[in-house]
Amino acid sequence: LDGRPIESLIELPLMTDPELQAAMQVLSTLIAPAYFTDPNLFRLLLCRMVNVSIQHGMCGASTHGCAHLGIILGPVFHRYSEGYLFGKLACDLVDKHGFVVYRGKAHYAMGTTAFWTQPMTTAIDFTRSSFHAAIETGDLTAACYDMFHICSLLLLRNDPLDAVWRESEMALDFAREAKFGDIVDIIRSQQRFIATMQGRTAN
Fold first, then answer.
1. Is the separation of the CB atoms in 123 and 107 below 8 Å?
2. What are the CA-CA distances from residue 153 to residues 14, 58, 69, 148, 196 (Å)?
3. Long-range contacts of 65-70 (CB under 8 A, 24+ apart)
4. How far is Cα of residue 199 from the mean position of the Cα atoms in its chain?
5. Phi-psi bin for 59: left (phi > 0), alpha (psi -120 to 50), beta?
6. Which of 63, 64, 69, 121 is the most exposed place for a label (fewest CB within 10 A)?
7. pLDDT in tens, 121-180
8. Mean pLDDT over all residues of the chain?
9. Which three-class secondary structure state does DSSP give residue 58?
């Protein structure tokens, strides 16, 4: 960043080199595998994507890198305000340049980073927006993540457990329909927590 505010990155030009654009798309595709393979590889990948974007201009994949860099800045580096600003930058890049395919990912990042510095409702609204954007672009993986994330945020906000249960039922149906077994398991664990808190379990 060299002393520049994060918000100023919105003014960077668009990336013009087709080989770099292709490389950024490959890196964007590797974000999820890196996350599940090695946390340090995941972090390195995100930093590399943002550095390339700062040096050579922004592209659609830049929004994905900025969004997820925002997500790790808080818990990994304890830079929660900056994490929120990178999430916001991703959303602003989508809006400014029409990177519609990445709207769901950018709004997911805002849903994840907003509750560090903003009212919980802001995080929930962005996560719901992420779900709708993911559906519109056919990104079922992101949509499933949004569904369980909404349930988590509602629990954190201390919504009535009956209301969160109804939300979890819709989320579970959606994840089953999408055949995303890992998310099904996460939502079922959320439901077990809710049932336990309501005194509906044997132990």
1. no
2. 35, 31, 20, 9, 18
3. 65/24, 65/27, 65/28, 65/31, 66/9, 66/90, 66/93, 66/106, 66/109, 67/102, 67/105, 67/106, 67/108, 67/109, 67/110, 68/31, 68/105, 68/109, 70/109, 70/112, 70/113
4. 33
5. beta
6. 121
7. 999 999 999 999 999 999 998 999 999 999 999 999 999 999 999 999 999 999 999 999
8. 95
9. strand
Reduced to 3 states, what is the DSSP secondary structure of residue 31?
helix
> What is the C-alpha separation between 25 and 134, in angstroms, rounded?
18
Residue 58 · residue 14 · CB < 8 Å: yes
Indicate the pLDDT class of residue 203, thresholds 50, 70 and 90.
confident
So what's the pLDDT on residue 202? 87
161 SS3 class: helix
Nearest to 32 by CA among 105, 88, 97, 129: 105
Residue position matching structure tokens 């849903």: 111
Maximum distance among all Cα pairs of the chain, rounded to whole angstroms: 61
Which is nearest to 103 in space by CA: 82, 124, 126?
A: 126
Per-residue pLDDT tens over the stretch 51-74: 999 999 999 999 999 999 999 999
pLDDT, average across residues 79-84 = 94
Strands (E), 52-194: none
